[in-house]
Design goal:
This protein is an alpha/beta fold. It has one domain: Ribonuclease H-like superfamily/Ribonuclease H (Nucleotidyltransferase, domain 5, 2-Layer Sandwich). The chain has five helices and five strands, in the order βββαβαβααα. A five-stranded mixed beta sheet has the order 3-2-1-4-5, with helices on both faces. The longest helix is centred in the C-terminal third of the chain and has 69 residues. The protein is elongated and about 105 Å long. Its cofactor is Mg(2+). Belongs to the RuvC family. It is found in: Cytoplasm. Keywords: Cytoplasm, DNA damage, DNA recombination, DNA repair, DNA-binding, Endonuclease, Hydrolase, Magnesium, Metal-binding, Nuclease.
């Protein structure tokens, strides 16, 4: 499975390509950071990010795109920019029929380090260890993008099992509701038939009198 990990951001947007093998085996195939200047028009910044993402999607053809979900940030403007950057990449993937999955920062940290509250230094150190890198990916956005790809490779089986369980639950609910509807229909028909028979009997008795 090839996963394109995305650490979204307007100033720096990390992109990575991770290939997952048997078990927890993962290999880094590529990593980059797209930069846009703060004084550039917002639409142009998003366009630059979208174009870079589209190039990656068309060149690497990932099976899935894993994007960090904007969970909570004190800086509303930064949060909006992060969400917008992630949004244009998700749209580009969707247009190509590529699945998109979102992971919260704590999910990524927990998957890579075992601690959902790990700091960036710990995440970078574990990314280096997992991928066998001799030097730390820079800037930190590159390491975060790699971590997202690793996270999805390791969480994908669990996500698939959860989706299967939800689908089975939904199907069981549908069948249950259909059975209840059929039972109500049968009871209504029986009640109507009984009511008709009762009225017919009453008319016959009235006529006999």
């Amino acid at each position: 499975m090839r996963v394109m990990g995305v650490d979204p951001g307007l100033t720096r947007c990390g992109l990575s390509l991770i290939e997952g093998g048997a078990g927890r085996s993962v290999i880094a195939l590529d990593v980059d950071v797209v930069r846009t200047p703060a004084d550039m028009d917002l639409a142009q910044r998003l366009l630059r990010i979208a174009e870079a993402a589209e190039y990656w999607l068309d060149t690497h053809r990932p099976d899935v795109v894993a994007i960090e979900r904007v969970f909570a940030q004190h800086n509303v403007r930064t949060a909006m920019g992060t969400a917008q950057a992630g949004g244009v990449i998700a749209l580009a993937a969707a247009r190509r029929g590529i699945d998109v999955c979102f992971h919260t920062p704590s999910e990524v940290k927990a998957a890579v380090t075992g601690n959902g509250s790990a700091d960036k230094a710990q995440v970078t150190a574990m990314v280096m260890r997992i991928l066998g890198l001799q030097t730390a990916p820079t800037p930190a956005d590159a390491a975060d993008a790699l971590a997202l790809g690793i996270c999805h490779c390791w969480r994908a089986p669990m996500i698939a099992r959860m989706a299967q369980a939800e689908a089975m639950a939904a199907e069981q609910k549908r069948k249950y509701e259909a059975r209840l509807a059929e039972e109500r229909k049968t009871r209504a028909a029986a009640a109507k038939k009984l009511d008709s028979a009762t009225k017919l009997k009453a008319r016959k008795e009235a006529g006999a009198r």
